[in-house]
Design the sequence.
């Protein structure tokens, strides 16, 4: 996006005139916009773009010139530089109207807190390295708590988002592509930035510390903002919120595979479009730029409550029974396959984690003719019902330390083998380096089984400092698994 101003143009002059005076940041800081990314353990603020009405001299900046308040204790400013377009680049040297504050993201989002590390950690200060969570709690001059004001923002719609493909349309006013902060009736992250040191503009003006911090109205959410966020309503009156991503260089003359992802049950607490995208890598990894360069695809991520595994009863409606949830999902897929003419119908894939993996199995049982393959993390299922998938292409990953899933899936694999499935099984070190995972994946592929079953060895899944219990082994199965490039690549090798 070099040269593209993602937050909209400022009304102020970029260059100004020669000056030697000093003025407060209050007069020149226009806006703050957090830049968020989704990691294996969830959604984090990785940087903040601070917009000024003047070009800022990059050489004048230091991390100690700013404090950033986020919802995470101990999140530090690790880098600072100017930018002409508000992008996070990890480079210095180009003077611009934006100051980028990169933040540490090496903290772990606990499994028990769901999709965001809030509660006790909310409202702490990210300061300079070594500052911890203390940071300044007072404004310049130390005369009391720093006041927070919402900065003006000229945010424009992410240019990567399309609002219509074929007959699939989306109204951004109903489900915004760019998230408003939770303090502004939205689902986005909240940050507050204070300039506490002196910086220099390229026109020679010294911009001194401000008297108040500024918070954000919007956030820039890498990859997440690139998903359309429509609703699907079927003929039976049932509705599904879903996200859909098209390749950035989408070409209607080409055929594209589809990846349909289901999050675990804990990712539907607030039941929003964004929630199932921000809980981990399962929904967004397929739209990552590097991933897209290897395997361009259409990504579909529905938001459902619970699992589809035991969804048997239709919901009552005024004009007759509504579709069951799993039937509504299948109706939605039929609709997408009909309305998007360049979907490769021989390459429709499923993937899911936990309860979402059980949903995947249920869909495959209902419509085995629709799906070419499935990548499953930490599923468990009825040992008799699953035998109907003895000829399906599946890669299943579980952890030995997941006492709730591992014994069940061992029994399921035995049942599938008895039903005629060709099983390829291996035990992996969950902390393997990428090269070892490549070798492990290739070895299992070479065995040729239609059902591949990888077990992550107990004691190698949960990182140091995190309790090595069943709950964490369960969640770290997919926190580890979606990061394994070879598993993702394997999915796209399958055709009906």
Sequence:
């Amino acid at each position: 996006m070099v040269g593209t101003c993602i937050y909209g143009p400022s009304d102020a002059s970029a260059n100004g005139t020669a000056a030697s005076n000093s003025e407060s940041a209050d007069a020149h800081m226009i806006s703050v916009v957090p830049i968020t990314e989704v990691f294996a353990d969830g959604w984090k603020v990785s940087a903040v773009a601070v917009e000024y009405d003047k070009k800022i001299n990059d050489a004048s900046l230091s991390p100690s010139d700013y404090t950033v308040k986020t919802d995470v204790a101990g999140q530090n400013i690790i880098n600072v530089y100017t930018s002409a377009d508000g992008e996070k680049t990890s480079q210095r040297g180009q003077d611009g109207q934006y100051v980028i504050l990169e933040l540490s993201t090496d903290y772990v989002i606990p499994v028990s807190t769901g999709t965001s590390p809030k509660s006790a950690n909310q409202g702490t200060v990210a300061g300079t390295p070594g500052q911890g969570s203390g940071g300044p709690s007072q404004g310049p001059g130390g005369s009391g708590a720093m006041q927070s004001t919402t900065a003006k923002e000229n945010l424009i719609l992410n240019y990567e988002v399309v609002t219509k493909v074929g007959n699939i349309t989306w109204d951004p006013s109903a489900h915004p592509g760019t998230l408003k902060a939770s303090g502004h009736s939205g689902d986005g992250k909240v940050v507050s930035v204070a300039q506490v040191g002196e910086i220099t503009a390229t026109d020679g003006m010294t911009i001194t510390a401000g008297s108040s911090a500024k918070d954000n109205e919007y956030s820039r959410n890498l990859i997440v903002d690139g998903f359309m966020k429509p609703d699907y309503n079927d003929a039976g009156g049932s509705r599904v919120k879903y996200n859909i991503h098209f390749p950035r260089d989408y070409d209607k003359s080409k055929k594209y595979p589809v990846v349909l992802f289901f999050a675990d049950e804990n990712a539907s607490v607030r039941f929003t479009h964004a929630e199932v995208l921000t809980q981990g890598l399962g929904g967004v990894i397929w739209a990552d730029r590097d991933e897209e360069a290897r395997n361009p695809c259409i990504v579909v991520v529905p938001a459902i409550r619970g699992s589809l595994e035991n969804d048997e009863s239709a919901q009552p409606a005024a004009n007759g029974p509504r579709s069951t949830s799993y039937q509504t999902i299948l109706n939605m897929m039929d609709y997408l396959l009909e309305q998007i003419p360049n979907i490769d119908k021989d390459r429709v894939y499923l993937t899911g984690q936990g309860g979402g993996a059980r949903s995947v199995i249920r869909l495959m049982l209902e419509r085995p003719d629709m799906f070419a393959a499935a990548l499953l993390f930490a599923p468990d299922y009825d040992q008799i019902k699953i035998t109907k998938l003895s000829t399906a292409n599946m890669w299943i990953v579980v952890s030995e330390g997941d006492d709730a899933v591992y014994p069940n899936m061992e029994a399921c694999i035995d049942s599938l083998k008895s039903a005629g499935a060709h099983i390829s099984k291996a035990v992996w070190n969950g902390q393997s380096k990428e090269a070892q995972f490549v070798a492990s994946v290739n070895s299992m592929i070479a065995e040729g089984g239609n059902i591949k079953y990888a077990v992550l060895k107990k004691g190698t899944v949960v990182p140091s400092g995190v309790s090595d219990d069943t709950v964490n082994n369960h969640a770290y199965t997919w926190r580890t698994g979606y990061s394994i490039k070879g598993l993702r690549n394997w999915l796209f090798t399958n055709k009906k």
Remarks:
- The two ends are 37 Å apart (CA to CA).
- The chain has two domains: 22-160+177-220, 224-491.
- Residues 400 and 458 are 5 Å apart (CA to CA).
- The domain at 22-160+177-220 is CATH 2.60.40.2180 (Immunoglobulin-like).
